[in-house]
Design goal:
Blueprint (H helix, E strand, L loop, with lengths): L1 E4 L14 E4 L3 E5 L17 H18 L7 E8 L5 H11 L6 E6 L9 E9 L1 H4 L4
Parallel strand pairs: 4-5
Antiparallel strand pairs: 1-2, 2-3, 3-6, 4-6
Helix pairs in contact: 1-2
């Protein structure tokens, strides 16, 4: 079964995509790429890759929580940076926030859709049945 995820704590998407998708038997959660928008769609931390990375990870956390998981359930993160010179700042925050999480990762330089965005992050998480309390 496939379920679209939407958190009221994250800005609505412009479509045709959703904030995240969950598939069952265990649950895989795929997030769309998120930038540093708050729930009112305002970019946070303009000009500050650390603040933007923190907001991106907060958005991803809220999407994963909408599917019954947490950041500890991350299995893959893809980071898109407008400028690779921002890698160290982004990675500093990522190391802090995801210190105890084992996940695969890729980082690429890209032109981002939002003009004020320095970073965009997408993720995949897996929430196992036993972690959700399922008995089946």
């Amino acid at each position: 079964m496939k379920k679209a995820l939407e958190s009221p704590r994250v800005a609505k998407t412009k479509g045709p995509y959703v904030q995240g998708v969950a598939v069952t038997d265990g649950t895989l959660i795929y997030t769309s790429g998120v930038v540093a928008r708050d729930a009112k769609a305002r970019i946070q931390g303009i000009g500050d890759v650390r603040r933007q990375t923190r907001q991106c990870l907060k958005n991803i956390e809220n999407i994963i929580r909408a599917g019954g998981g947490s950041l500890k359930d991350l299995v893959k993160v893809t980071v898109f940076l407008r400028d690779l010179r921002d890698y160290a700042g982004m990675n500093e925050v990522r190391r802090e926030v995801l210190a105890d999480v084992a996940f695969a990762s890729s980082t690429v330089q890209a032109q981002l859709n939002a003009p004020e965005a320095l970073v965009e992050i997408e993720a995949v998480a897996f929430v196992g049945k036993s972690l959700r309390g399922d008995k089946s």
